[in-house]
Each structure stands twice: as structure tokens, then as C-alpha cells.
């Protein structure tokens, strides 16, 4: 009996020794290093850049006016610089009707669904947008920018209808709405059209502005005919006013009285005939083309003198 117990205990001890040896062998092995995930610099930069971008609703193709937008017309584009006032969710545009035709790639905002084009949103109710032809001299050597304020000057050369050459300010302090195809700010202070984003687009816009041949002025309605007459009567010049002038942006409206401002402009107007560079206009009798008046011959006979006309 004792021998059997001894053999059983010996077997158990042998099994325990084998298990302990195997376990010790497993623990003594050096674990294989786990390969860490490879993170490239490009992927890290892309992840950081994605966090700085924000979605903007854009049109994927041209859409006509007065047609409700559908999800197929729209897409979300992630931009680093989000245009002010732009829509950021598709639900904000789906079902809305643009009041004018919009092109593919247009960033949508609330102005996309309001009446009037960019120029109509840049002028006040008592103003009109009027285009004026310019060249390098008239347009201040191509340095005009939307938002500048200019005085419109008129030069009249001497001709048969104008006895003396003259120069005068026709309308002071008009706001430039656009130079070529470059537009300024709307009445709400936001860009009338999305500004160029890339460096290449900004360079192309500056080049087009320098070569612009038309500018659009915000003209008070009572002065429209005056500017039209001046443009046909002689040569116009645009003189840029200082940006440091106080209340210049409200010259014709708001803080200043438009009635008194208009009356002052009328008083300063020389009716396209005065401010001559060589003196006052000549009367018809004094003009160079007037016929000379014949003078008689004085005949003296003794103490008597008489005028005789040959």
C-alpha cells in the first residue's frame, strides 16, 4: 500500500516538475517586438489640415434662376478659408430658389437667393451705378481700387462752342464700385462676389484691374444727367481722395445732409464755361472773328475839326 502511494506521489511530482520546467522555458524566451504602426509625415500633415478646414456648400453644375435646388445640384467642399456668410450644410440650400442664374463652383450664401446682382447690392436706394470709360491717365495710372472715393473733373478744350478752355470739379466724392471686373463690398460689408483665394487668382485679378478700361461709380440720382453731359462735353479725370477724410463714406447720405451737399455742389459748378485759364470769355463784339469797326478821318480846317468817313 505504501509503495503505491509513494509511486503516485512520485508521478505527481514528476508531472509537476515537467509543468514547472515548461513554464520556466516559456517565460525565459524573449518576446518578439510588436511592430509599431508607421505614421508618415504626409499623413500627419493631412490629418492636421483636415481639422482646420470647414465645409462650404457649392454648386456642382450651372443652375438656372427660379428653379429649386436639389441634393444633386450641391456638394460640400472643405476649405481652409471659409467665405463670410457662406452656407455650411446642404439642408440650408436644398429647396431654395436662386433668383438669378448661378455657375458651377459658386459658393452659396444668403445673397445667392436675394434679388439683384452684385452691383445692385452695392448701392443705396438713392444711388445709381454708372459706368465710365477710363484709360491709364483717367484711371490714375491703373491704381484705382473698388472702395476708393474720387472727384470727377471735366476739362473743356477751346472750340467754336466754348470760347475759353476750362477745368472744374463736376461731382465730388463718388464711390468706386468696380474697376474692370473687380467688385468691392456690398452694403452689408461682405464681398459682392467671392474674392480670389489662390496666389495665382489674386495675381490675375491685379493684372486685370491694372488694364481695366471701365469703372463703375455710385452716383446720386439727381447728378446722373450732370455726369452724362460732362462725359459728352469734354474729357473726364478721376482724382482720388484721401482715405483719412472723416465721414467720406457717408458724403452723400447718412451723417451729412444730401440736400445741402447737392446745393453746395451746384454752387461750385461753373456750368462748363468758366474757370478760364486766360481770362473771362470774350463777348461776340470782342471776338477775333468780329468785323473791325471802321474809324473816320479827322479833318482840321483852322479852328474847326470834323470827322469824315471815306
From TrEMBL:
Q: What is this protein called?
A: Flp pilus assembly protein CpaB
**Chain ranges passing through the membrane:** none
What InterPro entries does the entry give? Answer: Pilus_assmbl_Flp-typ_CpaB, RcpC_dom, SAF
Question: CDD domains of this UniProt entry?
Answer: SAF_CpaB_FlgA_like
**SMART domains given for it?**
SAF
Q: Where is the SAF domain?
A: 54-114
User: According to the lineage, what is the superkingdom?
Assistant: Bacteria
Enumerate the Pfam families for this protein.
Answer: RcpC, SAF
Q: Which residues form a coiled coil?
A: none
Amino acid at each position: 500500500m505504501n509503495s503505491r502511494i509513494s509511486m503516485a506521489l512520485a508521478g505527481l511530482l514528476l508531472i509537476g516538475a515537467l509543468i514547472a520546467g515548461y513554464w520556466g522555458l516559456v517565460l525565459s524566451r524573449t518576446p518578439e517586438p510588436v511592430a509599431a504602426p508607421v505614421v508618415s509625415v504626409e499623413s500627419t500633415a493631412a490629418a492636421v489640415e483636415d481639422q482646420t478646414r470647414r465645409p462650404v456648400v457649392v454648386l456642382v453644375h450651372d443652375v438656372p434662376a427660379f428653379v429649386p435646388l436639389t441634393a444633386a445640384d450641391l456638394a460640400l467642399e472643405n476649405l481652409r478659408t471659409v467665405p463670410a456668410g457662406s452656407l455650411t450644410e446642404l439642408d440650408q440650400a436644398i429647396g431654395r430658389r436662386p433668383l438669378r442664374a448661378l455657375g458651377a463652383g459658386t459658393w452659396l450664401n444668403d445673397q445667392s437667393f436675394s434679388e439683384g446682382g452684385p452691383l445692385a447690392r452695392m448701392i443705396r436706394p438713392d444711388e445709381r451705378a454708372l459706368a465710365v470709360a477710363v484709360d491709364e491717365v483717367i484711371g490714375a495710372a491703373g491704381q484705382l481700387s473698388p472702395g476708393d472715393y474720387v472727384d470727377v473733373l471735366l476739362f473743356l478744350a477751346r472750340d467754336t462752342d466754348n470760347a475759353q478752355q476750362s477745368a472744374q470739379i463736376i461731382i465730388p466724392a463718388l464711390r468706386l464700385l468696380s474697376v474692370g471686373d473687380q467688385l468691392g463690398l456690398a452694403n452689408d460689408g461682405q464681398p459682392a462676389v467671392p474674392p480670389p483665394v489662390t496666389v495665382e487668382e489674386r495675381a490675375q485679378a491685379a493684372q486685370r484691374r491694372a488694364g481695366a478700361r471701365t469703372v463703375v461709380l455710385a452716383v446720386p440720382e439727381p447728378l446722373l444727367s450732370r455726369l452724362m453731359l460732362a462725359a459728352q462735353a469734354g474729357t473726364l479725370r478721376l482724382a482720388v481722395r484721401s482715405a483719412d477724410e472723416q465721414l467720406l463714406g457717408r458724403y452723400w447720405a447718412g451723417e451729412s445732409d444730401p440736400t445741402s451737399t447737392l446745393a453746395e455742389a451746384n454752387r461750385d459748378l461753373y456750368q462748363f464755361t468758366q474757370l478760364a485759364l486766360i481770362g473771362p470769355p470774350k463777348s461776340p463784339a470782342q471776338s477775333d472773328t468780329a468785323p473791325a469797326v471802321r474809324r473816320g478821318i479827322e479833318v482840321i480846317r483852322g479852328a474847326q475839326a470834323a470827322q469824315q468817313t471815306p
